[in-house]
Specification:
Length: about 180
């Protein structure tokens, strides 16, 4: 199995605002080092911008092994950071999708992990396992207890918070409309 994760540090902006951007950058470097230190040899940890990291957890033999890897990540994130002589704790949100259960290509796997990360951020049950949200490819939405992104999206459409627009798809050879793409705004 391959788990693709999108990890975002929660409430990172106040750290930059309180301690300065240099201290924030130092924290990000330390976070990257810690994540790398607890990773398996086959795992990849990459900072993709700001306070976001991508995790590629290759060669997982079982969900139990995934749980063990995630427990190490959570434990290292929970350790306090030293910033200008102060101990600072930080939380993170992790969205995961798992191949081959999610049979998407690489770009879509990353997008699914990113969507799951935003669902993890929105969760109110942020206890020990609440920091991770798994993408559910069977229903095409993120499993979030009794809610789903689909339900939230349909509610936003009904209330006018989101509008649906159709954009024509034009065939390059003929210049004719070949279909429509649905967009939300």
């Amino acid at each position: 199995m391959l788990a693709v994760g999108f990890l975002d540090l929660d409430a990172f902006k106040p750290i930059n605002d309180t301690y300065g951007h240099d201290a924030g950058d130092d924290l990000l470097k330390e976070m990257a080092r810690r994540l790398q230190d607890v990773s398996r040899r086959t795992d990849t940890v990459a900072r993709v911008g700001g306070d976001e990291f991508v995790l590629l957890l290759e060669g997982l033999r079982s969900m139990d092994e995934l749980d063990q890897v995630l427990a190490r990540f959570q434990a290292t994130i929970a350790q306090p950071f030293s910033i200008k002589g102060e101990k600072v704790t930080i939380q993170a949100s992790l969205g995961l999708t798992i191949y081959p259960f999610d049979k998407a290509d690489a770009g879509l796997l990353l997008r699914h992990a990113d969507q799951a990360m935003y669902a993890a951020k929105a969760r109110t049950d942020r206890a020990s396992e609440g920091w991770v949200q798994l993408y559910n490819p069977d229903v095409g939405t993120i499993a979030m207890g009794h809610k789903t992104l689909r339900q939230d999206f349909l509610r936003a459409l009904r209330t006018g918070d989101v509008t649906l627009r159709y954009q024509p798809l034009v065939a390059l050879r003929t210049g004719r409309v070949a279909g429509l793409e649905a967009l939300t705004r």
